[in-house]
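Q: Here's a chain of 516 amino acids. Please give me its 3D structure as tokens.
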Amino acid sequence: MTKINGSGKDADSGGDLKSGPTGVDVLRMALSDLEVEVRVYVPGYPATDAIPALGDKAQMDVNEKVAMEVALGASATGKRSLVLVKHLGVNVLSDPLSIAPTHTIGAGLVVLASEDVGPRGSQAEMDVRNYGPLCEVPVLDPSGPERLRPALLEAFALSEKVRAPVMVRTTFEFKDLARKSSSSPVHRPERVEEKGRFGTFDRSIWDLTSKGRHQRYRTDVLPQMRLASSTSSLNFLRDADEDLGIIASGRPASLVLNLKKKFPLLVAGFSHPLPWDMIRDFVEKRDRVLVAEEPTPFIESRLQICNKIFGKTTGHLPWGRMESQDLERALELIATGTQPGPGFSPQRFEDRPGSKNVCDDCPYWPVYEAVRNLGVSVAGDAGCSIRAVRPPLDAVDVVYGLGSSVGVASGFGEKGVALVGDYALAHSGLQGLIDSVNNKREVLVVLLQNGVAAMTGGQPVPDITPILDRIVQEFRTIELPANRDSIGEVLKEELAKPGVSLVVVRGICPRRDSAT
């Protein structure tokens, strides 16, 4: 833990931002120095920005659950592994994540979860810290790129000590510059000790029952996790002559450090388990405490029994992303005893800079128009088709998760349409298609096949049409460019047939190198 008094210079602030490496550079060096051999990922903003740091041998997996399973296999055979996903991807990998802590692993395994705080490139905002207590895994919360390497070093060491996966979540941008400071070195560090000795899976765990494995974990492992949290180098404590203190985690900690006025500050390096002794001591010594965190009141909600706690739930700070002016406003309101005003109005599409519809030169425009003209319910997906929910197309009615459109549309009262991209279908939509065929549901699946994950960086995706031929006995193919009327005729014919219909529409995204 870093500890300073109010008269000293903050160990995590200042420094020359222009000359520092980015978060991508820090991650690249850390993975090399920590000898992380297996690096798997699933693209999606903001995790996509970190992919270059993984190197040429990194592999893109079809979905996050598969990525986690690959990493578990590597860990079991003595290879350190890292899984890079966006925040929503943690939902998909949570099944093996929840089982691995009690079943144990071998070499260190770290899930690097990148939060889209805002959100700016995702359907939903989500706080992955909740998976710490839910799955009983440690969650580290570095405040900026300069803290990423020590976070990864601690994460891999702890993972191998407790034989469980560890999560490191990021709320900063990987393109951000790392600050240089005495406590946050960003130069290339020494190689790790005991090179290549990371352990393999210990089969003695099967001597215990399921209940016994949980008993072992809670008796032997949780105390080690609590000790790691309380002694972490990511913790930061600053004293100052103020009765108003701040508890911060993640990116907001950097915002607090940059405020002109110095307040007593506790930065929690672990989100789970929290460094409770430090937090209790800090709160007891202050008259009032502001909790600065993103995107939800994860820490604050655990302190609400104390009436001196302020933050999101009290209306002093906004939910989601915050900026320096939000902190300054909250501190002024607390200092003056002024009550926060009404909450923020919901952001509208037209008010947000950079909001997008379907691209003007998208070859699938006539497909969207033809689907709209069918006059039936349409389920879209978390790919490009989500942009067709608004004018001028108004072609899609509902959108939920990546790969969800087939299952959703098969639940409509009457035969409707599922618009799904080839990446979304491979990711998780294939199960919905199998289920629809098996249960003889009514759905017209329109597969938009352009060979790439167009919304997440243009990564090539597998061609699964040979598999589709085994699932759906017959399907039709449309090669773009084609006009709206001819596309509409094909769709009408398939919509009129009973059961599951499939139409594959092949086109090339003009902004990506297509694999088709």
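Q: Can you summarize the key feature?
A: Residues 13-17, 182-193 have pLDDT under 50 and may be disordered.
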